[in-house]
């Protein structure tokens, strides 16, 4: 019963009215009411126009079972509305009050060792608990009934960072129901799970338990299905509360906060139920790779919303408190991180949190208003960000504009889950590591990409990258072939197309469903020695391209014993048991081509393969062409605006057409743009403000 289209339109109207949304989580219940007025005044000074309220307020709203204490929230909402600050009002359901778990221990989650967790932290609930869900619906219904028409409330926020996993009896009951719906009969389940192995055959669904601690390895299909069930069960919780809010008459957009490539929730299966895609991002300032990993996440969020603008719901303005060693961001780094999100499609930039907590587990997590108060570099940096975002909003060039991507990166949660179960040829092959490595080649060229799923339409993409797809379904194989036939270049990575949707190994020469597309097939996978194995130019290099014979090309981690069946062999193994065996191939298909990397290749090989695929299809980066940009430079085209972000510690000179306008400063460019270390330029041909 989602009012998806009108609610999405309401978000666009809010952005058009307020500009880029800027703010963060606000927890007034942690402070004396006298502080609230100071907060609002400082929010106005910083340009804050949206705050999320109530995420962790259940114990304040319902201090004892059935009680309702809304008076303090009335005052907060009225105060914010009077100051022109919109509210994203949260259901408080992410953190139940202690009395719920004490009176109803069945609402508490059980870990895989059978230990029931206790109250005293957060997220202490089982998504399968009917008692928890009844109480969550009750408080959310009363909250929505009271505030659906409040003028301050412009959005609704359900829960917080869904990720609860329960292995207890509540989950067992719901898991069995989920399996009945999926398989229909116990015989069908036994076939799908391959229970003839190790005498695991079940006589009835009631015999099945979640994959708790076992003497040895868990059935991989049971594990995969439990992951699917867990994601679906949390989605059921979200939908119940979303529908409760709608039933109370609320017409505002409803969202919840994702967590990037989170391992326990298939966000693609959630996307259609979310009016505005929102995400929490906490890149590590200590890692030089953070800008690339963050850009990949941001492209995922934009893609989940079919290209619509999205929200950066949480980030840290300085240091987090939950890493073993927490490096702070400088105000310049915080500004650059925010503008990176805007460059990749965000129309809302928010933080956790507004005022730094003085007590509790996150008392050292940074905030927009730190312990030191407004007389601080952190707060002055926040004020500057507010001014930057207002300038971009007034320019009329950024809000609502889209990113045109001709490259797709295939990523599927079920394949990720199944492909990283234990008892594989190697546990060193990581789906996320490979996806990030391949994406890095696009980032370094300023090439935009959409992150698509196994069932996504590939029409319109000229290059499709498949870094690691352990599961390949027939419809995915068909879509890849159609894309190649019409002229796209498909690049497939190692250990792909291994299994079906039940995680059972496909029979025949691998990758079975992609064999004809790739023009190559294999018979065995094997782990490789720790020392990288050299690669050399192949047997058929299409004219002897010397780049493929250059020194420094290596392979490692995993290899597949392949033979060419029509494909050109570009690289082979230079020595060892696989000497002369194809490692990298390219097959002409229709008007396009399909590349296969049968091993984890070095960056030099990835650069050649992906660079050639981009060049062959005429895919250019944000600055034209497909050559690599200077180290640390990120270039993104959003609409007709070019964002240049310098993530390096040195200044970078960038040739650009003269006369472009920097929307952040109003300055016009010369023929070379000097981008200082850590700085950002937002360039447009026109300035409409």
Quick structural gist:
The chain is of the alpha/beta class and 689 residues long. The protein is 32% helix and 19% strand. Helix 2 runs parallel beside helix 4 (71-82), helix 12 packs parallel to helix 13 and helix 15 (431-443) packs across helix 18 (603-617).
Highlighted features:
single chain, 689 residues, alpha/beta, TIM Barrel, Rossmann fold, Immunoglobulin-like, 11-stranded mixed β-sheet, 18 helices, 32% helix
Molecular structure report:
The protein has 3 domains: 1-19 and 51-276, Glycosidases (TIM Barrel), CATH 3.20.20.80; 407-617, Rossmann fold (3-Layer(aba) Sandwich), CATH 3.40.50; 633-684, Immunoglobulin-like. The protein is 32% helix and 19% strand. The protein contains 18 helices and 26 strands. Strands 10, 11, 12, 13, 14, 15, 16, 17, 18, 19 and 20 form an 11-stranded mixed sheet that branches. It has a 9-stranded parallel sheet with strand order 5-4-3-2-1-9-8-7-6, sandwiched between helices. The protein has a 4-stranded antiparallel sheet with strand order 21-22-26-24, covered by helices on one side. Strand 6 (257-258), helix 10 (267-270) and strand 7 (278-280) form a beta-alpha-beta unit.
